[in-house]
């Protein structure tokens, strides 16, 4: 489909793995209807990645106009831009700007290795802080922790007790107000998610309760709803 908006004509096409409408399965927005725009390509190779197809496949070149048109089919849904790593493609920035101008609630899921400094104000940033078992923890851009705001979310996928302790150290070192219950709403939202293949959700829940952590236990709702579906959910 040719672009009907002259202001978008000069923007590069985005390599897209998939676009679909489903239930948001993660974050504090879990349970809401959501349009997902999954960009192809990733600079990391996490040991437990459940979306390897996002970097194994080349993706389909798609215009911003076509992506905006798809989101208009579901005017009340959230819009999440994900990957792979979406910030590797320059075209993602004008896409986010256009979605914001359309008054959409826009979320960006990013792996934490690329700077967030150019993400448009108003986009809800969900940063996946890679723990040691992922094999990618040294790739994190820690400066991003100073860019996140109380509107944003910081996710840790926990695979072991060592991951858990590492995550707790990151939080205590870098997150302001962490130990002050009165300031819970003023800081980044923190989520701990068990890596299903290595850690039971109940075990992670017990650790959180024992230590009295101010973090949110996150389960992948879409995996519960559609356990036999590998993509598009």
From TrEMBL:
The keyword Nucleotidyltransferase belongs to this UniProt entry's keyword annotation: no
Functional description taken from the UniProt entry: Catalyzes the complex heterocyclic radical-mediated conversion of 6-carboxy-5,6,7,8-tetrahydropterin (CPH4) to 7-carboxy-7-deazaguanine (CDG), a step common to the biosynthetic pathways of all 7-deazapurine-containing compounds.
Enzyme class: lyase
Enzyme Commission designation: 4.3.99.3
Catalysed transformations (reactions): 6-carboxy-5,6,7,8-tetrahydropterin + H(+) = 7-carboxy-7-carbaguanine + NH4(+)
Chain sites annotated for binding S-adenosyl-L-methionine: 48-50, 84
Name this polypeptide is given: 7-carboxy-7-deazaguanine synthase
Needed cofactors: [4Fe-4S] cluster; S-adenosyl-L-methionine; Mg(2+)
Cofactor details (free text): Binds 1 [4Fe-4S] cluster. The cluster is coordinated with 3 cysteines and an exchangeable S-adenosyl-L-methionine. Binds 1 S-adenosyl-L-methionine per subunit.
Gene expressing this chain: queE
PROSITE patterns (alphabetical): RADICAL_SAM
InterPro entries reported for this sequence: 7-CO-7-deazaguanine_synth-like, Aldolase_TIM, rSAM, rSAM_sf
Residues that bind substrate: 23-25, 38, 82
Keyword Magnesium: yes
Binding residues for [4Fe-4S] cluster: 42, 46, 49
Pathway(s): Purine metabolism; 7-cyano-7-deazaguanine biosynthesis
GO MF assignments: 4 iron, 4 sulfur cluster binding; carbon-nitrogen lyase activity; magnesium ion binding; S-adenosyl-L-methionine binding
Subunit structure: Homodimer.
Entries under Pfam families matching the protein: Radical_SAM
């Amino acid at each position: 489909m040719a672009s009907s908006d002259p202001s978008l004509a000069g923007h590069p096409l985005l390599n897209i793995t998939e676009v679909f409408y489903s239930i948001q399965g993660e974050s504090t927005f879990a349970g809401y209807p959501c349009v997902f725009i999954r960009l192809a390509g990733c600079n990391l190779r996490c040991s437990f990645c459940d979306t390897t197809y996002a970097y194994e496949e080349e993706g389909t070149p798609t215009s911003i106009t076509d992506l905006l048109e798809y989101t208009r089919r579901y005017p009340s849904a959230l819009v999440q831009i994900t990957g792979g790593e979406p910030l590797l493609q320059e075209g993602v920035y004008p896409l986010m700007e256009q979605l914001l101008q359309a008054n959409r609630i826009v979320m960006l899921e990013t792996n934490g290795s690329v700077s967030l400094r150019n993400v448009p104000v108003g986009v809800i940033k969900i940063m996946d802080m890679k723990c040691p078992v992922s094999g990618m923890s040294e790739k994190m851009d820690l400066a991003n922790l100073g860019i996140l705001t109380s509107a944003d979310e910081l996710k840790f996928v926990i695979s072991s007790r060592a991951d858990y302790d590492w995550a707790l150290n990151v939080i205590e070192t870098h997150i302001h107000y962490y130990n002050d219950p009165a300031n819970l709403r003023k800081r980044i939202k923190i989520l701990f998610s068990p890596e299903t293949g290595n850690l039971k959700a109940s075990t992670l829940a017990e650790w959180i309760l024992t230590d009295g952590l101010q973090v949110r236990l996150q389960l992948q709702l879409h995996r519960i709803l559609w356990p036999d579906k590998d993509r598009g959910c």
